[in-house]
Task: inverse folding
């Protein structure tokens, strides 16, 4: 074991393996929940939340979250400061405490859920219902419907996110280069372009990660006490966890 110093080993926080794992339902509601979270949501260490002024938006978010995950979600009346009005304004919050769901959302968007660094969650490309739900949720948060033509517009400063979305719907996209937010037009006719291609993605959280072994400290038995060493054969799975570290039985 002394030669393990400097090696990479698989590890996971052992306590996280005991948490509740909601079963996701990959349909419209799931897509709406992911889209709205990407636009206006917050992914914390152990929670996912949405705080908005529009009560209808908050209600749709809560309904989609419950339908997609089975977790209980409800609206709360809150106030939050407005930089434009220079005063507190009323709003509505939907908040679900689930470290598993929070970790899963971070995995969907590339590990960093910050709105400026998140990647497009390609898991919503699993089927057309999920993608349509994503578009509706994302537009409800960061977009609006056009008044003079059939389509919607989304606005974001996350250019790579919009560029990937534009490729999926077959839309042209020219980002703003002066540091301001860019716009992407989503015409209602985009499905007729035939650019949408379903993809297969894992719906389960990858809970292990690679860490480096910095030091190995041997322990020696002192005195004359005799020890009995027992050997166990593990079947059918030879791997198990020791304080979160994946080990395998020797042959």
Result:
């Amino acid at each position: 074991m002394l030669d393990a110093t400097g090696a990479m080993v698989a590890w996971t926080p052992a306590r996280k393996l005991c948490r509740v794992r909601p079963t996701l339902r990959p349909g419209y509601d799931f897509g709406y929940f992911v889209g709205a979270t990407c636009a206006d949501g917050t992914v914390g260490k152990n929670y996912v939340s949405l705080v908005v002024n529009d009560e209808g938006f908050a209600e749709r978010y809560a309904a989609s979250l419950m339908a997609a995950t089975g977790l209980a979600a409800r609206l709360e009346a809150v106030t939050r400061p407005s930089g434009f009005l220079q005063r507190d304004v009323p709003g509505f919050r939907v908040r679900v405490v689930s470290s598993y769901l929070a970790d899963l959302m971070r995995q969907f968007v590339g590990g960093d859920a910050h709105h400026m660094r998140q990647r497009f969650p390609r898991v919503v490309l699993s089927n057309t219902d999920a993608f349509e739900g994503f578009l509706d949720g994302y537009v409800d948060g960061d977009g609006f419907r056009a008044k003079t033509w059939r389509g919607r517009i989304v606005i974001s400063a996350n250019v790579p996110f919009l560029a990937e979305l534009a490729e999926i719907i077959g839309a042209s996209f020219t980002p703003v280069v002066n540091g301001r937010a860019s716009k992407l037009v989503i015409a209602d006719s985009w499905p007729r372009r035939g650019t949408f291609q379903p993809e297969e993605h894992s719906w389960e959280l990858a809970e292990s990660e690679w860490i480096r072994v910095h030091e190995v400290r041997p322990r020696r038995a002192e005195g004359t006490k005799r020890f009995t060493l027992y050997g166990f054969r593990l079947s059918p799975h030879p791997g198990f966890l020791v304080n979160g570290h994946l080990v395998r039985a020797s042959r």
